[in-house]
Amino acid sequence: MNAHPHAASRFCMHCGGRLARRTPPGDALERLVCEGCGFVHYLNPRPTAGVIPERDDGRLLLVRRAIAPGFGEWAFPGGFMDVGETAEEAAARETREEANLRVEALSLLGVYTRATAGVVVIVYEGRALGEGSAGSETSEVAWFRPDAIPWDALAFDTTHRALEAWLRRRGLER
Ligand SMILES: [Zn+2]
How far apart are CA 29 and CA 10, in angstroms? Predict the structure, then answer.
């Protein structure tokens, strides 16, 4: 997913002053601190939400990503939350956008972190209503049997970990 919006910032979002790496008083870590107004630009992880949709025949849907990172690789639908929506709503919206698919009966599967990327992934499982098709940011959708998940072509380690949890919940193994 995208780099953090502040990670490469050189100027203060408030006064336009130059940012410097400095450890503020009472803090333990270096932060981006404005040399003009002193504002500290904290780099907090950003939450994303996604769904592993399941069909009545036990297959799960993955999308092939048409954007970086993970271009050409498989992931479940998901993306950054917008202000004003719940995690469930964000997960369902991303599934509509990326897979043209509606989902219902969302149930929390797990919460996973890509620490270096500063991303927290909230993953649901849910029942698919329809077949879906490629949407924005995806080139293809496909329904995989649990024993045919493309482990060597998954986009993120969080994709791996969530799919492994999905299998465990069904008494299956990779
Ligand atoms: Zn400033």
Answer: 18
11 CA from centroid of ligand 1 (Å) = 8
Query: pLDDT (tens digit, 0 to 9) for every residue of the chain, 174 residues total?
Result: 445 555 667 899 999 999 999 999 899 999 999 999 999 999 899 999 999 999 999 999 999 999 999 999 999 999 999 999 999 999 999 999 999 999 999 999 999 999 999 999 999 999 999 999 999 999 999 999 999 999 999 999 999 999 999 999 999 988
Q: How far is CA 64 from CA 138, 152, 169, in A?
A: 5, 13, 24
pTM of whole model > 0.90?
A: no
Q: How far is CA 150 from the centre of its chain?
A: 18
DSSP state of 162: H
Catalytic residue among 73, 88, 89, 140: 140
Determine whether 140 is an active site residue: yes
Query: Can you list the domains of the chain with their CATH numbers?
Result: 1-44 (2.20.70.10), 46-169 (3.90.79.10)
Residues shown for the chain: 174
For residue 43, how far is its CA from the centre of ligand 1 (angstroms)? 16
Q: How far is the CA of 19 from the centre of ligand 1 (A)?
A: 8
